[in-house]
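Protocol step 4 of 6: structure prediction from sequence.
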Amino acid sequence: MQIPAQSLDTRILTQLGEEVLRSLRERDFAGLAQRFGYAVAFHREQAYAIEEDLARAPVQVGWLNNMTNPDDVITVKFFAPNGTGLVAAVECLASDQESAFTLELIVTGSENRFDVTLEGVMRICR
């Protein structure tokens, strides 16, 4: 999704993180793929790739056992100016009734044209 330079603001990027978390909870994989794309689809159809990656539970994390329905944690980090075009990362940690999941939105671009792309989704078992 393209955003203007004025949207490179912690509040607006946090709102995009909230939107993605809401869409994941609603299982709107097609909407996510259409709006943000999916950088790690790797030759898979994007909506299917998001759903498939979320369904995987590759890691057991003991500290999650002590968390009862934690609030979503959304962190926006801006990169120092660089030649790669990486501008910011929106890191999200959220939980559902079975487990927690993490995701990242990556902001790339320069000057007045910026793109926000869903970079990865990973479920973490409790």
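Step 5 (inspection) to follow. The longest helix spans residues 10-25.
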